[in-house]
Each structure stands twice: as C-alpha cells, then as structure tokens.
Amino acid sequence: MRISVIGLGRLGLVHAAALASLGHTFVGVEMDTERVRKIHDGTLEMHEPGLADLVRTALTDGTLDVTSEPSASLGARAHFLTVGTPELAPNEGFDASYLENALRTLAPSLQPGDLVIGKSTVPPGTAAALTAQLHRESPDAELAWNPEFLAEGTAVRDTLAPQRLIYGVSSPEAARLLDEVYAPILDTGTQRVITDLATAELVKLATNAFLATKISFINTIARLAATSGADALQTAQLLGADPRIGASHLHPGLGYGGGCLPKDTRGLAYFAQQAGVMEAAQFFAQVDAVNTAQRQHITEWVTAQCRGRQEPQVAILGASFKADTDDTRESPSIALAHALMNAGLRVRIADPVVTASCGADSRLEFVRTAEEAMREADVTLVATAWPDYQRLDPEELLSVVRCPLIVDTRNCLDPARWRNAGWEYHAMFDPVMRLR
Ligand code: UGA
User: Fold this and answer.
1) Whose CA is nearest to atom 5 of ligand 1?
2) Which mean pLDDT values do the consecutive 10-residue runs of the chain (436 residues) have?
3) Whose CA is nearest to atom 16 of ligand 1?
4) Which residue from 11, 42, 92, 421 lies 20 to 30 Å from 259 (Cα-Cα)?
5) Which residues of the sequence carry a binding annotation for substrate (predicted)?
6) What is the DSSP letter of 146?
7) How far is the CA of 333 from the centre of ligand 1 (A)?
8) Which amino acid residue places its CA nearest to atom 18 of ligand 1?
9) Cα of 151 from ligand 1 centre, angstroms
C-alpha cells in the first residue's frame, strides 16, 4: 500500500522508515526543506539508534520517498499526521495549529475513501474538531486517531513491535484500512483495540501522565526514605517487584524530561482545568511540581557544598533528557545547569552526543569529554544515565578534579568502585543529601 506521512520529525521519520521496512511504500512530506535535504544526505538531525540505517535502506530500495511537495501524497490511501503539538505557552495547553495546517495542506491530495490518521498527542476533542475541518475541505475522506507509544532511544523497536495498537475510528472501513497498514505487525500477534476518537486521544495523554506520576511518586517516596533511614533504591525495587505496580518508570532520580512527559502532564492539567475538574488539574500540577523540586533540591545541596570555596566549579555529565538520544527538550540536566549558574557557580557540561553546536543553549559551557568537564571541579554530577559514564575510571579522574565528590542523580554508577578509588560518592537520595 502507498502511504503518506506528514511531518518527518522524531515521530514521523521513524514511523515512515520502520513501516517501509515491512513492505509498504511511503512518501514523507516535510515542509522544512533543510530537514529533507539532510534526510537525503543521510545526516539525520536526530540521534536515534537504528534509524539512519533504516532510512538509508528505504531510500535506496525506493520504499521511502521524502519531499517538501505536498501533492506527493496524492495516490496514497492512508495519510499519517505526525506533526508536533507543542505547548501554546507554559501551562496553556496544546497548540493544534500544526495539525490544522497539515490537514489543510493535505486536503487537495485526498481522494474519496482515503483515511487521514492522527498520531500526534492531543487532548480529547481535537480529532472531532479536525474531522469537522476535514469534512469541510474533503468530505469523502475520513479521520482516525492512532496514538503512538514509542520512546526515544528505542523508537525503531517500539514501532516495529508495539505493545498494542489503538485505533480510534468512526467506521469499520477505517479499522480495516488500519489493519492493512499494520498487517505485518498484527501477524506477530500484537494486540489491537478498536475504540472511539476521544478514547484514543485520552489513553495516550493518560499513559504519559501516568508514567510521569509514577516517577514523581517514587521520587517522593525516595525523599521519605532519605529522612527515615530506609534505602531509597531498594524501596523502589521492592515496590516495582509487585506486579500490580510494575518496575517501569519507578527509578528515582533527577526527574523526567523530554518533549512528552512534562508537556503532556501539564497539558492534561490544563485540559482538566478547562473541563472544570479542579482536583484533576491540581493532581497533575502537583506531579509536575514534584518533578521540578528534584533539581531544586540538588541545586540547594550543591550550592551548600560549594559555599566558601574560591570560584566553585561544577561538572555535569549528560545533557540529553535521557540516554541514547540527543534530545535536550526539557532536559532536567540543562535545567540543573541553569539553576547552578544562577546560583553563581561555574558549570561545565559534557555529553556523548549533545554538543554546543546542537543548539542546546548558547549560555552553557559545553566541553567535549567528561574529563574536560571535571577539570578542577568541586562537585561532579551525573545527570544522564549514559553507559559511557559507567566506563569512566574513578582512579584516573582523582587527579583531574579539585574535590573528589560525585553525585549520581541517575543511580547509574557502581558506588563501590568510586568509593574504593577514594571518592565521596552519593546517590541522589542518600540521607546525607538531606538539607533539612
Ligand atoms: C515517553 C513515553 O515513555 C512513550 O511511551 C511515549 O510514546 C513518548 O513519551 C511520547 O509521547 O512520544 P520518552 O519521552 O522517550 O517516552 O521517555 P521515557 O523513556 O518515558 O522517559 C521520560 C523521562 O523520565 C526521562 O527523562 C527519564 O530519564 C525519566 N525517567 C524514566 C525517570 O526519571 N525514572 C524512570 O524510572 C523512568
């Protein structure tokens, strides 16, 4: 089947390239001509394991075409909308204008019986509004909502082997067409659920808000562990061992970041507020507040450690919001760097893939390696759980820093290795990390 994908960012490009490998023919339409050029050149704008190879193969095989020409969608039967839905402003809900524009641009290429499939994360009601727009512009096409659950770093695997497929549809024909699109995945036994548009929209938002809630929950419990002599990490592990709770997203630390969990949790709070369900709005606002409290807590602790020192310096290891991605959107690590700089400390930051040229933030002092970041550092903070940091040599690094004090905000290092080498090592929720 010929399928079009509108928007070739972190979601759309993975979707097109991954499904092209399953036997469909994809055309990807992207308005940003520079992005299109880079995809053709093989210089992708994003670090996503496995993606570059998939894209190269699909372009060479002719199963993927990438263009800025909107009319290229003509002749496809299924059209995925994979454009972004950024926050309008902090705590003011989602901006649906990219979706509206994508649909407007797509409409002239639609033919009777075509299916437009929204994949972006939106509050319930968005698909209904887009359906009304579609019926005005192209009355014989239909709209469905098919939320995406891929995580960065494992996006290719998650797309090719999703845990479930959710079809928000208004007709059996739409479900049948989606079954054709996903046939190779369904053949492997993947569960698929047919529902209405609003449920498909809400389940995606709710999934991300739930994951955020789990993280804020465990960070709250970890803080209580630190005040009570309990072991924060073991408490988390034992909680996660209860199958009713589950171990995923129950790892305490610096908190969540990225383009999805923070935005979606605040977006759900805004949606609840608009709906007049104030306790829900307050609940999700509190999840967000607990998340940002983690970096404030570390900032206060590090600042207290550096008090009285001459020109104190902090090394931050990791800039991306998590390992295996170059994405710095709402990265807790970058927020931490800013907070420490605002507190008057000099901060050097290193990351295996994020560099100053990635445009993360021009005020930040990016250096190439962890060793460079740690030169003359009074405190070293591991802020992203890159496996590279597990391979650092604590003994060698002793002579690099001014003070051998390391805080592992992601609990990704081996404490014994660092302590045995002579470092003062603290996990994020050690009792010693308590300020008050
Ligand atoms: C998230 C969801 O997990 C995906 O299912 C969803 O499709 C995606 O958002 C999206 O809406 O596009 P992602 O943002 O890639 O995926 O990241 P996660 O792996 O969920 O991690 C989010 C943040 O939580 C990271 O900063 C991570 O370090 C942090 N985290 C994760 C914790 O602090 N503790 C944990 O136990 C797990």
Assistant:
1) 149
2) 96 97 96 97 93 97 97 97 95 96 97 97 97 96 98 97 97 98 97 98 98 98 93 96 98 97 97 98 98 96 94 97 95 96 96 80 88 98 98 98 97 97 94 68
3) 151
4) 42
5) 149-152, 204, 257, 322
6) -
7) 14
8) 151
9) 6
- According to the model, what pLDDT value does residue 435 have? 55
Same fold, 2-195 and 207-433: yes
pLDDT at 355: 85
Q: What's the CA gap between 394 and 389, in Å, rounded? A: 10
CATH code, 2-195: 3.40.50.720
Active site residue 412: no
Confidence at residue 359, expressed as pLDDT on a 0 to 100 scale = 63
Query: How many whole angstroms separate alpha carbon 12 and alpha carbon 7?
Result: 6
Of ligand 1's listed atoms, the one at least distance from the Cα of 249 is: 36
Give the binding-site residues of ligand 1, using a 6 Å CB cut-off.
121, 148-152, 208, 211, 215, 249-251, 253, 255-258, 260-261, 321-322
pTM above 0.85, yes or no: yes
At 384, list the tokens. 């992203």
Distance 205 CA to ligand 1 centre (A): 13
Domain boundaries, the chain: 2-195, 207-433
Q: What is d(CA 162, CA 118) in angstroms, rounded to the nearest whole number?
A: 17
Long-range pairs, 274-278, Cβ under 8 A, ≥24? 274/93
CA–CA dist 434, 113 (Å, integer): 62
Q: For 366-405, give one letter per residue: b (16+ CB within 10 A) or e.
A: bbeebbebbeebbbbbbbbbbebbeebebeebeebbbbbb
pLDDT score, position 251: 97
Question: Which residues sit in the known binding site?
Answer: 35, 85, 121, 149-152, 204, 257, 263, 322, 329
Distance from the alpha carbon of residue 170 to the mean position of ligand 1, in angstroms: 30
Q: Give 207-433's CATH code, choosing from 3.10.310.30, 3.40.50.720, 3.20.20.70, 3.10.290.10.
A: 3.40.50.720
